[in-house]
UniProtKB/TrEMBL annotation:
One Pfam assignment: Cullin_binding
A single cellular component GO annotation: spindle
A biological process from GO: protein neddylation
Cell location: Cytoplasm, Cytoskeleton, Spindle; Nucleus
Subunit comment: Part of a complex that contains DCUN1D5, CUL1 and RBX1; this interaction is bridged by CUL1. Interacts (via the DCUN1 domain) with the unneddylated cullins: interacts with CUL1, CUL2, CUL3, CUL4A, CUL4B and CUL5; these interactions promote the cullin neddylation and the identity of the cullin dictates the affinity of the interaction. Interacts (via DCUN1 domain) with UBE2M (N-terminally acetylated form) and probably with UBE2F (N-terminally acetylated form).
Protein name: DCN1-like protein
Source organism per UniProt: Indicator maculatus (spotted honeyguide)
Keyword set, alphabetical order: Cytoplasm, Cytoskeleton, Nucleus, Phosphoprotein
Gene that produces this protein: Dcun1d5
Residues spanning the membrane: none
InterPro entries (UniProt xref): DCN-prot, DCN1-like_PONY, PONY_dom
Amino acid sequence: CVFLSYCRSQASGKVISGEEHFSSKKCLAWFYEYAGPDEVVGPEGMEKFCEDIGVEPENIIMLVLAWKLEAESMGFFTKEEWLKGMTSLQCDCTEKLQNKFDFLRSQLNDISSFKNIYRYAFDFARDKDQRSLDIDTAKSMLALLLGRTWPLFSVFYQYLEQSKYRVMNKDQWYNVLEFSRTVHADLSNYDEDGAWPVLLDEFVEWQKVRQAS
């Protein structure tokens, strides 16, 4: 009977969609697969979590996910961060999160979202008892965020390697993104009288000397 077949297909459709509904209880149980007795997903749990979702810890998807969870510290997810963030993503299991990977990657292509992720990365990556990023962490995070898109990144990285700077403050961090978006690769439109941090003035001077030699 066509009518019965239709009813069965509708009923089965409802069952399937019901299974896809987000469950806070299931999400919490998922959290406890990785959390320690202190109710925090720490380095060991994070490593297992990354293995289960099939992503390297250094993959930029993990940074975007941390941003979505509003995680305060690198390598840690609290229960509150997990529940709030995964609820907003409507993810209560590994498969659902994996299905969100394309969405998470797409956030990097949105200018406004990328700027927010970039700014978030500074506080996320710094030691909480420090106001600045140590230069090695800054270089690693810049490589993750700008390494594939900024033509001058490799040159800027070399500059940081040989520079006197041992930390990068928030103003410098924010301005590196602005510099990467507005200054041409040949530095022809760099305004020496602009309000750039000294770090970037010195980078431009260093690069022009290299180009001239």
